[in-house]
Every structure is written in structure tokens, then in C-alpha cells.
Amino acid sequence: MTTVIWIAVALLLVGVYLSWTAGRLDRLHARIDAARAALDAQLLRRASIAQELATAGVFDPAASMVLYQAAHAARLAEDEQREVAESELSQALRAVLAESAQVLAIREAPGGPPMVEELVAGVRRVPMARRFHNDAVRAARAVRRHRTVRWFRLAGHAPFPMAFEMDDEPPTSLTNRSAG
To answer: What SUPFAM superfamilies does the entry give (predicted)?
Structure first.
């Protein structure tokens, strides 16, 4: 009789462990979804600010066109091309705002100071949002690699989480100017 009790206790403990692991994995997937939504919002905000800046008439036509096209492409990119489009927007921002004189010209334009502050906030928040997303992905991947999770298919039909890799280095003129 005690053997049956021990087997029942062992099965109960295994069931509790599997349930806890499945719940943890579900929470990690929810965290990934929330982090991805926050990242998407920050990327959209950065692209919108870049488009607004490109149409403000502060830059020469060529620089405005480069920045506008990169921002427009980033806003409209499908998921498969999103990382590349966002990286190209980062490169365009660095190219257009390569010197502190450009940032100063924006600040001196009508409505310029708030635009610069918004852009500085945007280029700072994108790397943070991407880091939070990628940390959540890394945690979920670590749990999903466990044999128990694979054997009992605790992840269900959820797709394997993918990190968001992009060039998110901000223009040095923005980070130096805002720091000073």
C-alpha cells in the first residue's frame, strides 16, 4: 500500500513540476509579446520622428530624401524585412546627423527643441526596448531547450522565439549634444 502512495506522490510532484514549467513558459511568451509590442511602438515612434524631421525643411533636399525614405521604409516593412529596414534607418540617422551642426540647426528651427528631445528619447529607447525583448527571448529559449519541455511538448504550438537584431547605434551628435 505504501508503494502505491509513493507512486501517487511522485506522479503528483511530476505533474506539479510540469504544470509550473508550462506556466512559466506561458508567462515568458507573454513577456515576449509585451516586449515586442513595446519595441514596435518605439520603432514606430522613432520612424515617425525621423519622417517629421525629414519634412521640416532643416536639411538639404538630398539628406531629407534619404532620411524620409529610410523612415518610410522602416514604417512599412514587413516582419521579414523589418530588422534590415530599421538598421537602414539607424544608418540614415547617423549619416544625416553626422555633425553637431545639424543638431544645432534643428534646435534653432521653429519647433526644433522639442523635436530634438523627442528624437534623442527615441534613439535611446529603441536599444532599451530591443534589449528587453531579446532578454525575454533568451529566457524563453533557455526554458524551451530543456528535455522535459520538449518531451512533454509544454510549449504547445507557440513558435520558437526569435531575437530582434538590428543596428541601433544612435548618432553621436545626438548623444554628445544631449549629454552636454
So the answer is: LemA-like
- Domain range for 23 is 2-179
Query: ∠111-72-66 over CA atoms, to 5°?
Result: 75
Residues 42/129, Cβ–Cβ less than 8 Å: yes
Q: How many of the other CB atoms lie within 10 Å of CB of 25? A: 20
- Within the chain, strands assigned E span none
Please state the domain count of the chain: 1
HSE, CB side, 13 Å, CA atoms: give it for residue 179.
9
Closest of 51, 86, 44 to residue 69, by C-alpha: 51
| Segment-wise mean pLDDT, segments of 10 residues, the chain, 180 residues | 92 95 95 98 96 92 96 96 97 92 87 91 96 98 94 91 96 68
What torsion, rounded to 10 degrees, do the Cα atoms 30, 33, 37, 40 define?
A: 160
Which sign does the torsion angle of CA 45, 47, 49, 55 carry? negative
Contact status, residue 39 vs residue 165, Cβ threshold 8 Å: no
Cell match 534623442: residue?
120
Enter the pTM of the model: 0.89
What is d(CA 161, CA 134) in angstroms, rounded to the nearest whole number? 9
What count of Cα atoms within 13 Å lies in the side-chain half-sphere of residue 58?
Answer: 25
Give φ, ψ of 30 to 5 degrees: -65, -40
